[in-house]
Specification:
2 domains; two-stranded antiparallel ribbon; mainly alpha; 8 strands; Transcription Regulator spoIIAA
């Protein structure tokens, strides 16, 4: 590749905006501007509302918008993904910082920004190490269970704001019991404001999904509370917000503090990246384009670091906000840059308008967002499809409701890893038979019509052969030999699913084959991959089995055995005649 072309390719990889900006079409400009306005209309009220989940003042929600949008637009590989505040990771942030600082204090706000910077550093580190595969460690049932549990925890946390009563700390059930006990303390006007806001949010999302429901509800609630003097009637409002741009602030780099923040930061990176990558891939499936998981990690790094440096909190890619951009006709990341410009103007010119915005309306926006995330039908379908995966999701939900959000997701990931270890160490081999009239061979348990051959056992290896799986595999193979009727004289191993065999497995398999050979059973292999066969050769397996007993297809191995059987019968016939004193005339 020429040096110029290679340098251009490297530049596009590091700065993906260069891959689409030179080819930008004029007819994309208006859709991108309109989509940017739609994203702005949603992000301003939602970011202020989500600041309540994070436990910081609403103004920090506005500080969180602009720098991340610009950073991701330049560095992200998705042309449509929108990054911003998020409910799932926001609650983890609140819990992480809340363990070392009092919510509402200046220290809490500063540490929340420090956490965002630490999260950005982890994103950059994982991207540099090309660890885009980490999202695979949160399987879909765990993620869905996490979201369903989070919906419950977040909603119960917003109920006091909705009802105008004080909240409490503790797990889901503690907060639920507290809210029920203090229902008589609820003030009428905040309850009415909150419930009307929630009804309006849900109705607009259902009846007019293209309308920015959060912005409409925030404006209408502010107007109504002002008209009816709701603040005097007990409705809590935002109050005076500072105008202008935030000042660049250096983070708290105390090593002890960073160590306390690190576990929560890692959890946020894992959960947030899984959510962001899912959103990016969903957008790419509908509009085209390639997603680089490692570059997505890199892009989220500066987005979070800049947010923290300018007084904001963490951000991740949001599927819900991305869906809004897509529905509004966005074509490229220019839509996010347009949204960033309008959010910048909002900070400079419009913050005085938010002074009378009621907290019950914020609570309604958050609750509506959480209800939109919930998919109880998925859990019902999961129960019908896989009981153990449903149990995995249920464990996560139960863990979140009783132990806490961080503990719930940690429990889910831990159980998933244990399940992964169990499945990889317990390969499910199977006895194969030939489908009538075909050359295909299938598991006889699932295909009773499959034909087996007396004296021949065709055994399919169910997965990788390595130190953790070979013991179970050896037991299953010997059990199949012992129970096969009539007893097999020949075993054909179908190794199509084996991509890897290590030294331990090779040695153990060699010993098993020698043991069965001593009992008069011969062996052959079919569909062995080149890399696996080379390891078998180096380990002495090929020499013991015989290089001529490796076949490209199962059918070839069966035919070779049948031919050998015929030869054995023919060679045995003269010997039998001689023993009986017979001769041909």
């Amino acid at each position: 590749m020429p040096i110029k072309a290679r340098s251009a390719s490297t530049a596009e990889r590091l700065m993906p905006v260069l891959s689409w900006l030179p080819g930008y079409r004029h007819d994309w400009l208006l859709p991108d501007i309109l989509a940017g306005l739609a994203v702005w209309a949603v992000m301003v009220p939602e970011s202020m509302a989500y600041a309540g989940i994070v436990g910081v003042p609403p103004i920090m929600g506005l500080y969180t918008i602009v720098p991340p949008l610009i950073a991701y637009a330049l560095l992200g590989t998705s042309r449509l993904l929108v990054v911003g505040p998020d409910t799932a990771t926001g609650l983890i942030s609140a819990l992480t910082v809340g363990a070392i600082a009092v919510q509402g204090s200046a220290d809490f706000n500063a540490l929340t920004s420090t956490l965002a910077i630490l999260i950005g550093a982890f994103f950059l580190l994982f991207g540099a190490l090309r660890m885009g595969w980490v999202a695979a460690f949160i399987p879909t049932p765990v993620m869905r269970g996490f979201i369903e549990g989070l919906v419950c925890v977040t909603i119960i946390g917003q109920v006091p704001h909705l009802l105008g009563i004080n909240g409490t700390s503790g797990n889901f059930f503690t907060k639920l019991w507290f809210a029920l006990r203090h229902l008589p303390d609820a003030t009428l006007f905040p309850v009415v404001a909150g419930l009307l806001s929630l009804i309006a949010m849900l109705s607009l999302r259902r009846l007019a999904p293209r309308i920015p429901a959060a912005l409409v509800v925030a404006i209408m609630a502010t107007i109504l509370v002002g008209l009816f003097d709701g603040e005097a009637a007990g409705v809590s409002v935002v109050g005076q917000l500072p105008s202008g741009l935030p000042h660049l602030a250096l983070p708290n780099l105390n090593l002890a503090v960073l160590q306390e923040l690190a576990p929560g930061a890692l959890a946020i990176v894992l959960v947030g990246y899984a959510e962001a990558l899912g959103g990016a891939k969903a957008a790419a499936m509908q509009t085209g384009g390639d997603i680089d998981p490692n570059q997505e990690l890199v892009a989220h790094g500066p987005a979070n670091i800049l947010s923290g440096l300018f007084g904001g909190f963490l951000v991740v890619g949001s599927l819900s906000k991305t869906s809004i951009a897509m529905a509004a006709g966005a074509r490229t990341q220019l839509a996010n840059l347009v949204a960033a410009v309008f959010c910048f103007l909002t900070l400079v010119l419009l913050t005085p308008l938010f002074r009378g915005m009621p907290h019950p309306a914020f609570a309604a926006i958050v609750i509506a967002a959480m209800l939109h995330l919930s998919r109880p039908g998925y859990l019902r379908d999961l129960l019908a499809r896989s009981r153990w995966e449903f149990s995995l999701a249920a464990i996560v939900v139960a863990g979140e409701l009783t132990l806490g959000v961080l503990q719930g997701i940690a429990l889910g990931v831990a159980v998933s890893l244990l399940m992964l270890i169990y499945l990889t160490s317990h390969p499910q081999g199977a006895v194969l038979g030939q489908l009538p009239g075909e050359e295909a061979y299938r598991d006889v348990r699932r295909h009773p019509e499959a034909i087996t051959f007396p004296g021949l056992l065709i055994w399919r290896v169910g997965g990788e052969l390595f130190f953790a799986s070979i013991g179970h595999y050896d037991e299953r193979l010997k059990a199949a030999v012992a129970t096969h009727r009539p007893p097999p004289k020949h075993v054909l191993l179908d190794a199509d699913s084996v991509d890897f065999i290590d030294t331990s497995a090779c040695d153990a398999l060699l010993n098993s084959i020698k043991e069965l050979q001593s009992q008069g059973i011969t062996f052959a292999f079919a569909r062995v991959r080149d890399e696996v066969r080379e390891r078998m050769r180096l380990g002495g397996l090929e020499a013991v089995v015989g290089s001529s007993n490796f076949y490209e297809r199962v059918t070839d191995g069966v035919r070779a055995w049948q031919q050998q059987e015929r030869l054995d019968v023919q060679s045995a016939a003269p010997r039998d005649q001689g023993r009986l004193g017979l001769s041909k005339e």
